[in-house]
Design a protein that fits this description.
Blueprint: H1 12-35, H2 38-50, E1 57-61, H3 67-71, E2 79-84, H4 87-99, E3 106-110, E4 123-129, H5 138-148, E5 149-160, H6 168-188, H7 193-203, H8 208-216, E6 221-227, E7 232-238
Parallel strand pairs: 1-2, 1-4, 2-3, 4-5
Antiparallel strand pairs: 5-7, 6-7
Helix pairs in contact: 1-4, 1-6, 6-7
Length: 239
């Protein structure tokens, strides 16, 4: 199991919270730079796939600084709740939401994806951007998302995958293993965070493997849509 801090005895969950606390001040800037802004388009695409379901209550898992929650405003919901285990990331997100004057609809709070506080069948939809590969127990987190969704509710999961065709595969691997960790260390001052990223992506069961896992976690129909040559994938699952 990939963890950010290899010399630490803490559980993955605790290390993830510490890592994101450490990089929270620079996270949005690094995201834009390291992805060249493509992550914004990916989130827009994922939200567009939720539009036909017209969700009014939305849960954003591993919300971080709230980018997915803010994007979900375009669905015209009544309520969006974002949960994350990093107080540092949440603090940045809360300020962002205040500046955008969205605090009447979006609420961010500390919460663990594997033990959500919400009642069964509460949300119409859930989103998760680049968060499921950080779950300590992947299936447990997916089952919790399923539990809090209404029957017929939908989850949109955006996660890194791995391109499989030449030359994108080779360029992607070089960038992820060499350039990205170097830039991440220079800007964030956390030596482990952007080394952990390619390790966690390499370990993640993307594509058909993740579709099968979602189906095993009680999602009846699951579709996977590759974006940008397979660098990332949007998974849409219906309860």
């Amino acid at each position: 199991m990939a963890k950010p801090y290899k010399n630490s005895q803490a559980e993955k969950k605790e290390q993830i919270a510490e890592m994101f606390d450490n990089i929270s001040a620079k996270y949005d800037f690094l995201n834009r730079v390291l992805s060249m802004g493509i992550d914004i388009l990916w989130r827009k695409r994922a939200i567009k796939l939720l539009k036909p379901y017209n969700p009014k209550k939305i849960l954003d898992i591993a919300t971080g600084t709230g980018d997915f929650a803010v994007e979900a405003i375009s669905l015209n919901p009544n309520e969006i709740i974002g949960v994350d285990i990093s107080d540092g990331m949440l603090a940045v997100g809360i300020e962002k939401i205040k500046k955008k004057k969205l605090e009447q609809i979006i609420k961010l709070e500390n919460g663990d994806s594997e033990t959500l506080r919400f009642a069964d069948n509460y949300f119409d939809a859930a989103t998760c951007g680049f968060g499921v590969r950080n779950f300590q127990h992947l299936e447990k987190g997916l089952l919790e998302i399923n539990r809090v969704l209404k029957q017929g509710g939908t989850v949109a999961i955006l996660e890194f995958s791995k391109p499989e065709k030449f030359p994108i595969k080779q360029l992607y691997n070089f960038y992820f293993k060499n350039i990205l960790p170097l830039l991440g260390r220079m800007v964030s001052k956390d030596n482990s965070a952007y080394t952990y990223l390619p390790e966690s992506v390499n370990e993640f069961p993307y594509g058909d493997n993740f579709v099968a896992i979602m189906k095993n976690c009680n999602f009846k129909t699951v579709k996977a849509k590759k974006v940008t040559f397979g660098i990332a994938t949007i998974y849409i699952g219906v309860k």
